């Protein structure tokens, strides 16, 4: 297959980790007789520096013309003082929305080899856990009405959480279908004891659950879900939730796996074209030091092969190469836990994974 991949390297460690993933994708393509063409576009702080805008139109057009998009990370202290509308993060929301990517899949699984890096006790993680968070990505408070107005205590700022049945149904469908392909257990997380939008969310999910009798469905309030994730993560298979709750719970889920540097994500819409990115940020503190863990981005590349291109064997090959690197004891700094010794650099870890392909 010949496929065109847009690269949005972004800021901080973004360029280092995307370069690692590209090397892995190229080696995989060569092994299986495919050709991947990579075209870089600007996004985030680097785009602001060069064009004045975090998401130039050329980037949007390039992504929409590609077969899929691989993104590193955006943002950094240099651009933190900018107004909300021209912050690097705005580009991320903008590209998700422009590409219609309403489904965000964030798998959080504990690698047996990294058990020691998880902050949870052995008796809690036991035989490991494997959770898929399905986060709604183009609605809710991230995209609702916002602004300033006069309130009871003077000028106030506001943001609005709103969800339509259509938006809930399409993310619900993605979650139920993901559950059917996995452990057939779905937990919908909301705050229906307080929020009207959550009550509509819950009602809609209940109606959908009737069409998926094989899926063991339940609801959970978000505060309880935050607690249950650290109390007993094994109870979860698939979690479906809103944009904001998914943002928060996926960081929590990533931390209990041992390192946020391990977690990949896929953002999908109605077409096969997706956007794939690590769930961690641009880590400005270690940018340029070659200390970043490239695995989350490499695994994001594997998800692209699987979900956008239907190349399951190729994706398996990359995932197995990462497993082997970890099982052989290779660790970047973030994965050291209590291990002694010298951690691998980003390029060294990439080399190890490349050798396993
Ligand atoms: C994420 C990030 C983004 C989000 C930020 C950077 C806008 O935290 O992808 O989880 O909140 O969606
Ligand atoms: Mg986040």
UniProtKB/TrEMBL annotation:
Q: Which InterPro entries match?
A: IsoCit/isopropylmalate_DH_CS, IsoPropMal-DH-like_dom, Isopropylmalate_DH
The UniProt record lists the keyword Cell division:
no
Q: Superkingdom of this entry's organism?
A: Bacteria
The residues that the entry says bind substrate are: 96, 106, 135, 223
Q: Name one GO cellular component term.
A: cytosol
Q: Where on this chain does NAD(+) bind? A: 76-89, 281-293
Molecular function via GO? 3-isopropylmalate dehydrogenase activity; magnesium ion binding; NAD binding
Residues involved in Mg(2+) binding: 223, 247, 251
**Does the keyword section mention rRNA processing?**
no
Major site of localization recorded for this protein: cytoplasm
Q: Where in this chain does the record put each Isopropylmalate dehydrogenase-like domain?
A: 4-353
Q: Where is this site: Important for catalysis?
A: 142, 191
Q: Name one GO biological process term.
A: L-leucine biosynthetic process
UniProt-annotated location(s): Cytoplasm
Q: What class of enzyme is it?
A: oxidoreductase
Similarity field:
Belongs to the isocitrate and isopropylmalate dehydrogenases family. LeuB type 1 subfamily.
Recorded hits in PANTHER family, A to Z, give:
3-ISOPROPYLMALATE DEHYDROGENASE
Task: Please describe the quaternary structure of this protein.
Answer: Homodimer.
- Function summary: Catalyzes the oxidation of 3-carboxy-2-hydroxy-4-methylpentanoate (3-isopropylmalate) to 3-carboxy-4-methyl-2-oxopentanoate. The product decarboxylates to 4-methyl-2 oxopentanoate.
Protein's recorded name = 3-isopropylmalate dehydrogenase
Say which species the protein is native to. Answer: Ruminococcus flavefaciens
Q: Which gene encodes it?
A: leuB
């Amino acid at each position: 297959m010949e496929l065109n991949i847009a690269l949005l390297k972004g800021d901080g460690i973004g360029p280092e980790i995307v370069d690692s993933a590209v090397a892995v994708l190229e080696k995989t393509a060569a092994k299986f007789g495919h050709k991947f063409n990579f075209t870089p576009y600007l996004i985030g702080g680097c785009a602001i520096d060069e064009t004045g805008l975090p998401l130039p139109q050329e980037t949007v057009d390039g992504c929409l013309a590609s077969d899929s998009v691989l993104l590193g990370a955006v943002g950094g202290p240099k651009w933190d003082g900018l107004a909300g509308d021209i912050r690097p993060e705005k580009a991320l929301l903008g590209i998700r929305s422009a590409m219609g990517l309403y489904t965000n899949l964030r798998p959080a699984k504990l690698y047996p080899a990294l058990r020691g890096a998880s902050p949870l006790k052995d008796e809690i993680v036991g035989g490991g856990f494997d959770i898929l968070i399905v986060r709604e990505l183009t609605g809710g408070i991230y995209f609702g009405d916002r602004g300033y107005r006069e309130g009871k205590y003077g000028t106030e700022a506001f943001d609005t959480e709103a969800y339509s049945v259509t938006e809930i149904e399409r993310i619900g469908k993605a979650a139920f279908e993901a559950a059917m392909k996995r452990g057939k257990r779905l937990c919908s997380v909301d705050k229906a004891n307080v929020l009207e939008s959550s009550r509509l969310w819950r009602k809609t999910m209940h109606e959908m659950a009737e069409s998926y009798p094989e899926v063991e469905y339940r609801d959970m309030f978000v505060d309880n879900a935050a607690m249950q994730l650290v109390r007993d993560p094994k109870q979860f298979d698939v979690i479906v939730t809103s944009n904001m709750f998914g943002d928060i719970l996926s960081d929590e889920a990533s931390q209990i796996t041992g390192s946020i540097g391990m977690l990949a994500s896929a953002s999908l819409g109605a077409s096969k074209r997706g956007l794939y990115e690590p769930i961690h940020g641009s880590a400005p503190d270690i940018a340029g030091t070659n200390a970043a863990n490239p695995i989350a981005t490499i695994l994001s590349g594997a998800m692209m092969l699987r979900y956008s291109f239907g190349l399951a064997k190729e994706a398996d090959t990359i995932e197995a190469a990462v497993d082997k690197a970890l099982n052989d004891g290779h660790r970047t700094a973030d994965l050291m836990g209590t291990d002694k010794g010298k951690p691998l650099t980003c390029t060294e870890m990439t080399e190890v994974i490349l050798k396993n392909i």
